[in-house]
Structures are given as C-alpha cells and as structure tokens.
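Students often ask why we bother predicting the structure of a whole assembly rather than each chain alone. The short answer is interfaces. A chain on its own may look different once its partners are present, and contacts between molecules only exist in the joint model. In this exercise we take two input lines together and write out one structure for the complete complex. Read the inputs first and try to guess which parts will touch.
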Amino acid sequence: MVQFSRRLEEASLATQSLVCVGLDPDPNRMPVPDVFEFNKAIVDATKDLVCAYKPNAAFYEALGLPGLEAMARTVAYIHENAPHAVVIGDVKRGDIGPSGQSYAKASFGVWGFDAVTVNAWGGLDTVEPFIADPELGIFVWCRGSNPGSADLQDLTVETPQGRMPLYQRLASSCREWNTAGNVGLVVGATYPEQLEAVRNICPDMPILIPGVGAQGGDLEAAVRSGTDHRGRLAVISSSRGIIYASSGPDFAHRARSEAETLRTKINEILANEGLGWP
Amino acid sequence: MVQFSRRLEEASLATQSLVCVGLDPDPNRMPVPDVFEFNKAIVDATKDLVCAYKPNAAFYEALGLPGLEAMARTVAYIHENAPHAVVIGDVKRGDIGPSGQSYAKASFGVWGFDAVTVNAWGGLDTVEPFIADPELGIFVWCRGSNPGSADLQDLTVETPQGRMPLYQRLASSCREWNTAGNVGLVVGATYPEQLEAVRNICPDMPILIPGVGAQGGDLEAAVRSGTDHRGRLAVISSSRGIIYASSGPDFAHRARSEAETLRTKINEILANEGLGWP
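Now the answer. The structure tokens for the assembled complex follow.
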C-alpha cells in the first residue's frame, strides 16, 4: 500500500517533472474532432515529461454521454500507456451523506481517477467519502486562480487561532483531515502570496497549482512558494497553454515542446534553489 | 419570457403543492432494477401532487454512463408527462472560466434541467454562467442539512455590514446576484433558525429545503420559516422518505401516499397561517 502523496512524488521522480497537463477538450479549438484521439495524441507526445494528467470533467460533461465516454477511455489509456502518471479528475465535487459517497464511487470506481479535486463547502462530511482509501487522493479547492474566488475565500473569519482569511482556515482544516497522507490542496498560481501562506500551513501536503499558462500566473513564484522544502509535492498544471499550442496538424508535437519548456523552466528554478533532481 | 422564480410559483399553483420529490436511485433499495423505469413509475404516481422533481446527479454518475443516460431520459420524461413541474438538477457544480461555462452548458443543454443547485465557493465567477438565461434558475448551496456544514458555513466573518455567519454573508451575496429573478438558495430543514435567517435576508427568493424526510427535519418550522410572506417560494424536498417508502411492488403507490401526506401536512400548516391556496 502506497499513500497517495508518495505515489505523486514517485510520479515526479520518474520523469523529473512537476508538470501536469490539463486535458480540457474544446471542440472549437481541437485540431481533430474526436476527443479521445485528441487526448491520446497529447498523452503519447508528453508522457515522459509529466507527473500527472488532469482531465476537467466540465468539458466532457458539456459534450454529453459521448464526451463522458471519451473521458473514461482517456483515463484508461493513461493508466495503460503512462502508468507512472497520476490521473487527477478535476471534478470539484462535494456533497453530503449518500450523495457524497456516490460521487466518490463515481470518481474512483466509474471514471478511474487516482485523485480528484473536491469542493469542501459542506465541511468534513463532504471530504470523508473521498479519503477512505489512502492510495487515492484529493485536492481540496482552497484558493482559486480567479478574481471572484476572493468573494468568499478571502473573507476574514474568526477562529480559536485568531482572525485569518477563510482559505487559510480551510487549509488548516485540510491539514487536520490529512490523517492518511492523501489530502492535498488547490491554490492558483495567480495569487503567489496566498500560495505561500497555504504552503506554510501545510508544509508536507501536495498542492495542485493551476493558472501558470493561459491564466498568466508567475511561474517562478509558483515553484518557489508552492513546493515543499525539498522542492517537491507541487503539481503545476497547464491546460490551454499546452494542448492548444497549435491548431494545426502539429498540435501534439507543439504540445510536447510546450510541456518540455515548462518542465525545463521549473527544473531550472529548482536547481537555482539547490533543489534539483537526484 | 417567464422568470424562473415565476415559473416555480406557477408550478406550485398548478398542484397546490410545495412538495419536491428527490429522485435518488440506489440499486440496493430500488424495487425494480431499471433506473428509468423506477423513476417513470414514481413520476407517474406523483405528478399531480408536486411542484418539482430533483434528480441528484451523484446517484446517476455512480452508475456510470447507463446511469447518466437514465438521468437524461428521466428529465425528458418529466418535461413531456409532467410539464408543469420544474426539474431541479441537484448537481452542486461550480467552477471558473470556461469550466464553469461548460458545467452550465451541460446542466441546461445536455441534461435539460430547468434549474440546478450550485456550489458558489468560487464566488460570483462560478455563479454567473448559470444565470445568463432568466428562465433557467439556480439554488446556491447556502446552509447544508448536515452537521459538517457548520465547519465552514457557520464561521463568523467580518463584512462591511458587521460580523455574521458565513452562510448569511453568502445569502446576502445571492440577493445581490439575483438581478434576473432566477437565483434561489438551498437551506436544510434540519436547521430552522438558519432557514429563518436566510429567509429574512432573501425575502422574495426561492429556497430549496431538503432534509424533511429521512434526515428528520422539522416540517412545521421549515414551512413557517422557509416560505415567503405569502406562503410561497419554498420547495420542500423529500427523497428517500418518498421513493423508498416501500421496497415491494407497491412502491409507486406508497410513494404517492407519502407525497400526498407531505403535501397535506404542508398545506395544513399554510392554512393555519392564513396562507392557503386560492
């Protein structure tokens, strides 16, 4: 039995990479019409360069049952052809009681994800169903990469530990909930100060960091603030910046170039900190 | 063009009912194996007694693609055979940017819901994609019916209007966001004081109230605190208490009895308040 956080670290070691490729199929941007074929080409072209893939369920669901079928096929394809990689379902699910248990069953049993993003608005009750198996992990949506995330997440709350922004309070709760080594957090690269605050609260938990590509987050700040003290356990995710690097028949080749460039930049930042790969 | 809140009121007027039946298919409890056939029997048996149906997507997703296909067929069946009824997709979705837009497209365009429950953790950015069409509505998950909802939702936050529990702050935001008459809230019947507080903040918005059946919420308090000053715009939802009233071949008949009993009890409470149906 390998705890999820350890699995994630091994995935990074296998490719010397903190890069995650977001698989967000958009029919208006895909150079090939078939979602599975598009994803397959991206995976084939990038699998030696990344620690994780992150299909966002919203894009598949918007395509109806054929879209969701393509999502399931994509996950299975990654497990078979890039077995080192962790597959993170970006589903942002969360519900209570039997509904919450059903979402966990869907995430791991139906779609086959290794981990999912979770929306913890309903508290521990919404998180618990997803963390019963230490090998399967979650990333709790803590501080978004969008301006509107401030509406709730940055509100000042009163706690027994004093006043703090709500997202920091949630990060503290996640640390408490992480008794099995399989709880991580989502913090956008677009807000490096918030990322640093969360890393300080959760020094040894995985952090999934979207927003370095099309959303314009600061990569150097994301790497320095988001990794643990050893330069590990950050998953730096880019979707559109990689998979839509080209709208032509060279899309997979260009996706590889973008993924390689991102990996190289991250590894240079790590090396400058004395935290390169063994 | 009819605003969603008006559609909901007309649905209640048509059946003199605030009752919503939650369609949560559980293979371990359904007396018939086919999800669509089960739902069809429940709808046929209850359609003159309810204002809304509420399929919870979690249960369908846990059954994979056949489950989701049954969900889509169920929604279409209700539209055709109970055209007065509002179909609320209990999906608790919420994401930012193109992901949020994709969930809205899935909710209304793919599955065909009239309204969905939304998780607003990501702020207005996560809500906006769902409220572009005034005829289609949302219920923002404000205060859950589960004890764990207190973990975040009951925290005291500082606002320009003073200190208040977070769920009340979210209710205030929902009131601001409700410029098109299609934003409602979800508040559990298990916490009548919180329900009353939300109704006071949002006097003329729909409130979806789960938790009166199997979860043991106080029906009288839910009706008195949850309706508007005219005794309308509350959607009182029971799932397991109705659809699994019997595990035998009489399940649809028993579901009808339970729905009828709930409708009668609610209407007696309304009548005692002088708020009966015209």
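Check your guess against this: Chain B has one domain: 4-272.
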